[in-house]
Amino acid sequence: MDQHAHGPIHTLIIPIGGIPLLVPSAIIAEVVNVPELVPVPFSPQWVLGVVGWRQRAVPVISFEALMGAGVTPPGLHSKVMIFFPLPGRKESEFFGILTSSEPQPRTIDSTEGLVTEPPESRYIATCLKFGDTLVGIPRCKMQVMI
After folding, report:
1. CB of 26 within 8 A of CB of 11?
2. Which domains does the chain have, with CATH numbers?
3. What is the pTM assigned to this prediction?
4. Which of 22, 25, 113, 130 has the highest CB neighbour count under 10 A?
């Protein structure tokens, strides 16, 4: 038996301005409608504000602004994807990413997708192409202080 064979991976395609992101669904705590974003004084442009989620103040970021594009304000179909804390962070350090619409589930296996060169960014590890759809896989340890 091949030791490197993997079963299917349950993922979500996160629609954002520019290239959509592909993440394992296991790292998502919840997808919520966009509540009121409370601004954070003196925060970088990519920090849109904080939202109240389960008695916590969760920072919400604009991934496209983090990548150097402009900030896309929340729209009618926008959602906030609440992520579990990244490796090496405190258990309480949840964060959210603003999406342009509802994330789309996709089950992939190791034979799917063509690996392509990622855009020059310290936040995208690689890209996959499924037919005509190109998605970026964010780095697990983004060196961002939220």
Report:
1. no
2. 9-138 (2.40.50.180)
3. 0.83
4. 22
Calculate the dihedral angle through the C-alpha atoms of 110, 115, 121, 123, rounding to the nearest 10 degrees: -10
Two tokens, residue 125? 């590890």
**Unique residue bearing structure tokens 């919840």:** 30
3-state SS string over the chain? Answer: CCCCCCCCEEEEEECCCCCCEEEEHHHEEEEEECCCCECCCCCCCCEEEEEEECCEEEEEECHHHHCCCCCCCCCCCCEEEEECCCCCCCCCCCEEEEECCCCEEEEECCCCCEEECCCCCCCEEEEEEECCEEEEEECCCCCCCC
Task: Quote the pLDDT of residue 39.
Answer: 92
Q: Alpha-carbon distance 38 to 41, whole Å? A: 10
Distance separating alpha carbons of residues 50 and 96, to the nearest angstrom:
9
- Closest among 23, 21, 10, 25 to 133, alpha carbons compared: 21
* C-alpha to C-alpha distance for 1 and 6, rounded to whole angstroms: 11
